[in-house]
């Protein structure tokens, strides 16, 4: 009988020792912490909306020439689209567009203190450039314009565009870069300049080749928008987009960001900015 009681006592003692905790409630606290961590990990991106910075650089399409409201062309439309996303709290835009700028001038502008600072802090950099490089050839050879006249200038454009993208990525490796493609503004009003479509297509392919060499650098195709639209998308100067044209450009930019996985594009840059702070 004593042996039985002794055996039962030892079992009871071991049971108490195994389940004893010197810090009452520790298991409960740890359980709550684990639950909190689990919940935080499962929360969707839009639960913590982010502020993003968009820097626009380039020519008259960035400046917004042709926009009847004077608000900056495609910028207000793109801003509205971005801020409709649940994952974005505020999209802050910086416009450094200058009418008439070519790739050579944009390269110089990228070395100014103001633009360099903005690019370094940007989540997205939008570029509109190249139209004036093409028009330089048109003006210089208008009386006898031939396809071969564009070849030399295209090579210079290719070299300068590569330097532009390289400079942006050097200043800000994590930024997402969008380059707006060229379009042919002459096709409806000057049908005899059919070769311009070939020129625009050739230069756009050159741009795509350059962008393919960099991470998070994307081409925004817009030539088809102007070719296929039943509406007039050009300003009264028959060159720059009108309000509808700029809206469609912004929509195509937004579609490009969405197709590349917008949250993933900005996530890395936003995380890096938080670590810096």
TrEMBL record:
GO molecular function, one term: phosphatidylcholine lysophospholipase activity
Organism superkingdom: Bacteria
Signal peptide as annotated in the record: none
Protein name from the UniProt record: GDSL-like lipase/acylhydrolase
Keyword annotations from UniProtKB, A to Z: Hydrolase
Residues in SGNH hydrolase-type esterase domain copies: 57-248
InterPro entries: Ester_Hydrolysis_Enzymes (IPR051532), SGNH_hydro (IPR013830), SGNH_hydro_sf (IPR036514)
Pfam entry (one): Lipase_GDSL_2
Annotated Gene3D superfamilies: SGNH hydrolase (3.40.50.1110)
